[in-house]
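If you are new to this repository, start here. Below is one unmodified record pulled from the training split, so you can see the exact layout before writing a loader.
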Amino acid sequence: MTGRLTAVNLGAVTEAEWAGDASGRSGIDKRPVDGPVQVRFAGLVGDFIGERAHHGTPDQAVYAYAEEDAAWWAAELSRLLRPGNFGENVTTCAVDVTGAVIGERWAIGSALLEVTKPRTPCTTFAGFWGIPDLIKRFTVRAAPGAYLRVLHEGEIGAGDPVEVVERPAHGVTVGEMFRATTLEPDLLPRLADVPELPESIRAKVLRRLGAAGR
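And here is the target side for that same chain:
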C-alpha cells in the first residue's frame, strides 16, 4: 500500500497557560515547511518539543495524522484545520493510519519508520484547540493518529510516497490498541503478545491485566 505525505510540520514555540511543560511552553503548534526535513532517531530536526517526558522519546519520535481524519474533525467542528493542527509532524494522504499494525514499517523519502503506538489526547491539545471536552470527544472518535520510531535516519518532504514495506502478522492495529487502553479494556489481552509493543506500554498492559485477574 502506498500513500503520500501531504505535509511535514515543525513545532513553533507557543507560550500559554494551557501548555503542559513546566515552563509554560509547548510545541503542539506545528506548521508545514517547504523542502526536505532531516529525520533523526530523536525526531525531526527543527521541531520544538516542550514536554520531553511525554514527546520526543525514541518510541514517539514522529507523530502522523491522516488528512482524511482531519477532514472529519473539520466538518464536525465547522472550522478550518490546516496540516499540523493536530500537533502532527507528518500529515498523510491515502494511508490508513488508524488501521496501521503496531510494528508496521513505513519507507518515506530516505527514512525508515516503525509504527509504535497511538497518540493519547492531553489537556495541552484541548487547550490549543480551545475545546474543553476535546479529550472525551477525541477518545470516542478513536482515530488517534500514530507515533513512529525512526529505524533509519534520512530526509522526508511533502509529496513523498509512504510505502508500507513490512506488516507484522499479529494484526493489532493502532485503533485497536487505542480502544484497548481507553474505553474497551476487554481488548487488553490482545496487546500482551505483541512483540513490537513499547516496553512502557507493555508494563502498563500487564499491570492492568494482573489487577483484573486475566
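Two things worth knowing about this chain: The chain has a mean pLDDT of 92. Residues 199-211 form the longest helix (13 residues).
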